[in-house]
Design a protein that fits this description.
The protein has helices at 6-23, 68-75, 98-112, 154-171; strands at residues 29-38, 43-52, 55-66, 86-95, 117-123, 134-141. By secondary structure, the chain is of the alpha+beta class. A 6-stranded antiparallel sheet has the order 1-2-3-4-6-5. It is globular.
Length: 173
Amino acid sequence: MFDPTVFDNLKVALENELYDMDNLDHRVRITGRVDRMELAVMSRLFRIQFQLPDDDLITGEIELAASLQELASEILEQKGAEPGCVLTIRYKMPISNPDENCPQMQQVMEKIWPDQMLTQTISYVYNPEKIMPILCTSEISFPRKINEEQMNDIPELALYAVQTIQELRAQIK
């Protein structure tokens, strides 16, 4: 009989929580989903993207990843191994003034996600004939892997993820 891995259980819980927020609560609109097994390195990746239902300016993304080592240690029941997954949350939005907008975004994210590693990356497409929008990607990285012991935290994590978009939208106009 198939015994789901930590990755599978966390993926289903995240997926269910966000789809409930879309279909039942109408708090978000799911805009993308990736469920990938990378055969070259035998890793797993799940990514789900969402936006506010009435606003497509900011895209939120929750990503769950498990390496071959994580999956193998669980499946082979290796002693001393504590299988888990890497959780990353991203927000992508166009900005007009990085010197002003990035500190505002940093402040919002530090308030909601204290003690997490925050990274902002700015990018744009170069076109000498047309001014192109600047895209800011803000990423939250968690210092440790998560496993089924954090299953009860998933509803709160999803709420914080949506709250972040709402507050970013209110701050950056």
